[in-house]
Amino acid sequence: MEEYGLHEGAVVTVDWSVTVLVTFGEKSCSYILRSSYSVGQLKELLAVDTGLHRFEQHLGFYGTVLSDEKMLSEYLTPETEDKMSITLTCQPWKVLVLLPSGTLKDYKISPNTKVAFLKSQIEEHENIPVARQILQIDQNDLADDGLLCESMIPSNSILYLKEQIALKYSSNWTPVSARWKPCFEELLQVSDGNLKEVNNVCFSTKVDRFKIGFGNKTEVFLGIRHDGREVAVKRFPRSMSQNFKNEKSVLTTLDSPNIIRYLDIAMDDEFLYLILELGEFTLNEFISTDEYKQNQTNISRDLVGQILESLRTLHTGHNVIHMDIKPHNVLLDVSNRAKLSDFGISVVLPDNQSTFYTTAKGTYHWVAKEILDSATGKVKYKKNADIQVAGMLVYYTLTGGIHPFMPNGEADVFLCNKNVQDGKHDLSALDDIVGRHLVDWMLQPDPELRPTIEEALAHPFFWNVDMRYRFLGVLGDEKEVKESWKRQPHSVTLTLDGLTVSVFNTVPHWKDLLDQAVYDEVSKPVRNGYRSTICGLLRFIRNVDVHLKDQPPAIQATVGNPMTYFTAKLPFDELFLRVYKTVRDTRSSADDWTVRGSLKEFFPA
């Protein structure tokens, strides 16, 4: 044995010739093969001679189905000796595809078909566009121009169909945001490996430019919902599940255009997600834009109204204390409408409750005095804490980013907190004295002296010039103002007249600021003319407004529109504010002018 290269224990294979006759319908093929030939090798020969791919061949030998892996010799018996008569039939080939839905579906198709054709069949039956399909076997993508038979070994392998996430969402995407549009275009080009899909929302946490915000352990990402809507995806670690639940609970009760809208939730093994309305800018971002700077006065006034309207939705509509008001938590939509957001630490009070006790919360620089004063242990939160911080935000908005307790832009938290606690605010950067009065009222150190949100929104800062002028005219027609010249005038008119010198400190008589001809003509019916006091001016304004049509044409031409005339000639804002404060200070007194029928429209209850 050794001379033939054999050793003890070696396996010796005896090989011989076998005559194989294969019948296929009316056709037959004859081969002389070695007995060690496999059935699979025989099928390769038959594929050439019959045109049937090996995956479609079904070989039978005396009732036995031949297996590709076995040798011909394994089927021979003493009776058959070295001859095999085999029957070939065509067996339609099936491709098993596991769909994204989890359904296993078979497709009858030729093994010589290209992958692209199978994708077209899937599109026809499953309504999944070819462009969105990824076919995989053993986690390897199949090329569209490859043959199925070359990819699927063994032939009973299962193909896995995945949808390309970006393409799945791009077909429905409805561009709305101008600022984020380029980012969304990039997002829809990102590969599946860098995209995440939860609860029919697509977003990316792996590419930094798609992260648009962050907070205390939370992050916010750009996302697209299955219906094509652009959304913000706020991600919470599971360790913050209570904050997640709290914010969701608050948002679901707040259905208002003044509040960032809650859309849905999602979750995976590591994180919880809030799906929210997408904002275009945060307030602190927006005040840095050219759009804001070029029309700051008008835009900032609108923003302040919208911010306070948002707070009214919370305080009046739903008994909610926000507890974390700051520029980062005010979002602007594509129409530049301001909306409050971030309700992770907010609280919904029962209808009969106005106070909430908890540990101190909020963000540095944006905390009310009473919270700072009680920084240890339980803190008493009321809505007026929101009011003081909203006052800081109002001033910040009107001045393009200046904090009233940090007028020089200091970043020192301790200095800011000390200023808040000491009541040292600086409003000198705001030229609008009516706006300053509103902010000063909201910043009052004593919480009980601050306005409610309803009172803040009723403040004349939000009145237009016409309403302010009309207020002076209505007041000028009050009986006490008409009779202010008497020896025992009313206490309110005494107060008003006492303010004359401070308002008109540059001239001995307010008439010196007007056209002499106008004053002389209007004063003719009045013995000794109009008094130099504020009450005298209020009567003069009222009479010009009512009787101008009876004046000579030259006087009518000089005055033109009385409102425009007086607002241009007089220190109108100073006059108006002093008069307004005097009347408002009568509120809740024995002689409350704010409830008079002629004046109550200016002082809502």
TrEMBL record:
Q: Which GO terms describe its biological process?
A: intrinsic apoptotic signaling pathway in response to endoplasmic reticulum stress; IRE1-mediated unfolded protein response; mRNA processing
Supply the alphabetized keyword list: ATP-binding, Nucleotide-binding
> What Gene Ontology cellular-component terms does the record carry?
IRE1-TRAF2-ASK1 complex
Boundaries of each Ubiquitin-like domain copy?
16-75, 93-161
One GO molecular function term of this record is: ATP binding
Q: Which InterPro entries match?
A: IRE1/2-like, KEN_dom, KEN_sf, Kinase-like_dom_sf, Prot_kinase_dom, Ser/Thr_kinase_AS, Ubiquitin-like_dom, Ubiquitin-like_domsf
Query: Where in the numbering of this chain does the KEN domain appear?
Result: 465-605
Q: Which CDD domains match?
A: Ubl_ubiquitin_like
Protein kinase domain residues are: 206-462
Name of the molecule in the record: Serine/threonine-protein kinase ppk4-like
